[in-house]
Amino acid sequence: MRKHTRDGGFLDILAFLIPCLQFVQLQVIGVINGSDLLLLGVFVFLALRMRIRISTPAGKWFMILCSLWLASQCVTDIVRRSALSDYARGWSNIGMTLINFAVLCTLLHGRPRRLVLFGWGLVAGSVLAYYINPNKYAEDYPWKFGVSYPITMAVLLLASRSKCRGRWPVVLVTTIGLINIYLGTRNTGAACLCAALYLQVTRYLQRKGAATPKLNTKVVVAIAASIILGGVTILWAYKYAASRGILGESAQVKYENQSSGQYGILLSGRKELLGSLSAIYDSPILGHGSWARDPIYLIEARQALAAMGYEDAWDMASDTLEEGYIPTHSYLLGAWVDAGIVGALFWGWIFVLTARTLMHVYARTVVLLPVAAFIAFLMLWDTLFSPYGGMARILMPYYLLTLMTCYSMVPYKAVPATIGATKRYIDASSEPRP
Question: Whole-prediction pTM value?
Answer without folding.
Answer: 0.86
